[in-house]
Design brief:
Elements lengths: L19 E5 L2 E4 L4 E4 L2 H4 L8 H11 L13 H13 L4 E7 L2 H18 L7 E4 L8 H6 L17 E3 L7 H14 L4 E4 L3 E2 L5 E2 L2 H13 L3 E5 L14 H4 L5 E4 L11 E6 H7 L18 H16 L2 H17 L7 E7 L2 E6 L10 H11 L2 E2 L6 E4 L7 H20 L1
Parallel strand pairs: 3-15, 5-6, 5-7, 7-10, 10-11
Antiparallel strand pairs: 1-2, 2-3, 4-12, 8-9, 11-12, 13-14, 14-16
Helix pairs in contact: 2-10, 3-10, 4-9, 6-7, 11-13, 12-13
Length: 418
């Protein structure tokens, strides 16, 4: 029997979880002192590396001053400074920051903001549009916006309907744009939500910045809000601070989490434009934005995020990201002629490739065997079914990556031998 119930884990089939005792940089240390390369940034959160000194020091300093305080009716310096810095670094035009504690809640907040906006201005819209293959979290609202499938089939009775827009695969971008325009013409859309440039859990599917910009223009033309879910794509993963930067757009609402604290502590933020805030600003208390969590804007988490933003200000983070992106592109290019794989792809510091199997998809039978194979080679990779992706911290070296890609290259033969 398992006392701890682990996330996204089928305890009846999977081996005992790896016990990790320490971490530093791009490496984890197991309880038996064996080192494992964290090639997925511990579920896409670690940016500069584990236990990055400036962030660790900021946490130590803050916890000796203020550990927690209710954020309704109280405030504190770390949250106020962080909000100002977030507005400075975010796409121009965002003006207000609402704190929460995970990617799912940041998106849940965004959906509620959008619906509240339309209700409060007196022209209610209730239809949400979302890109096919999207994943936005595991709360009821975020599951509703995400793709329907194995992740949320058991909860279908509780999910609300959304307008599903075809994913803009290469060569089919116009189909996406036409579908979005037609949906907006058919009936007013409250908001379109999308992961900019790449659908993460949907299979690391990539689309171009021009299409992202055009989706935003279509929303503007029809008065629909645009929500950018940058929970995974933010903080340099796609090569720029935010993926929206590459399309030169400012969303009406922007969701960030994961790398917000450099991956050290859980914190999320939902950034909104002035008009979203103003629609909730009123002498009528019924127009209040009714959302919170007990740990909203936790001071220690805010201090970690502040330290992260100061690292971005004071260190050559984008240069490191560029160097890592070049290494990643070089490595994934070596698979172009390997017939055991297909669709090698790269965006910024993210690469992905599909292993050719008979039962492709998230429940591909090869997935568990692949994870076991990678761990045997001292690499932490967690394929999305038959899709293998590499998303390492920015401190990862060429030698580190060589280890990861050698493990990937040897995987098909290892699986065949079994």
């Amino acid at each position: 029997r398992h006392t701890v119930w682990h996330p996204f884990t089928q305890h009846a089939l999977e081996p005992e979880p790896v016990r990790v005792s320490r971490a530093k940089g791009a490496w984890l240390e197991r309880h038996d002192n064996r080192r494992v390369l964290d090639a997925i940034s511990s579920w896409w959160v670690i940016t500069h590396g584990h236990r990055y000194a400036p962030i660790v020091e900021a946490v130590h300093t803050q916890i000796d001053r203020l550990d927690q305080v209710i954020f309704a009716g109280c405030t504190h310096e770390p949250a106020e400074r962080l909000a100002d810095k977030l507005i400075d670094v975010a796409p121009r035009g965002l003006a207000h920051v609402f704190f929460s504690d995970s990617g799912s809640t940041s998106v849940e907040v965004a959906l509620k903001m959008a619906l509240g906006y339309w209700r409060n201005i007196g022209t209610p819209r209730t239809r949400i549009a979302a890109l096919e293959h999207g994943y936005h979290g595991d709360t009821i609202g975020t599951m509703s916006a995400g793709a329907r499938g194995v992740f949320n089939a058991a909860y279908e009775p509780f999910l609300f309907d959304v307008v599903r827009i075809p994913f803009p695969h290469a060569g089919r971008e116009q189909i996406t744009l036409d579908a979005l325009d037609a949906a907006c013409r058919e009936e007013p859309i409250a908001a379109l939500i999308a992961e900019p440039l790449i659908a993460g859990a949907g299979g690391m599917l990539i689309y171009n910045a021009d299409t992202l910009a055009e989706m935003k223009r279509i929303c503007e033309r029809h008065g629909a809000l645009f929500i950018a879910d940058e929970v995974m794509t933010g903080w340099g993963r796609t090569g720029t601070v935010f993926a929206c930067n590459q399309a030169k757009i400012t969303p009406d609402i922007l969701c960030v989490a994961k790398g917000l604290t450099g991956g050290s502590l859980p914190l999320a933020a939902t950034l909104a434009t002035e008009r979203i805030f103003d629609a909730h600003y009123s002498g009528d208390r019924a127009r209040t934005f009714f959302h919170s969590s007990s740990f909203t804007a936790n001071p220690v988490c805010c201090a970690a995020a502040l330290a992260n933003l100061e690292v971005w200000e004071n260190e050559p983070v984008l240069k490191r990201i560029g160097a890592l992106a070049n290494l990643q592109a070089s490595q994934i290019a070596t698979f172009e002629s390997d017939e055991r794989f297909e669709n090698p792809r790269c965006l910024g510091t993210i690469t992905a490739i599909d292993l050719k199997v008979a039962d492709a998809g998230y429940l591909a039978s090869a997935a568990l065997a692949l994870r076991t194979h990678f761990l045997a080679h001292d690499v932490l990779l967690r394929p999305l079914g038959n899709t293998i992706y590499v998303m390492p911290p920015y401190c990862t070296t060429a030698g580190d990556l060589a280890l990861a890609y050698e493990a990937i290259r040897s995987a098909p033969d290892a699986l065949t031998q079994k």
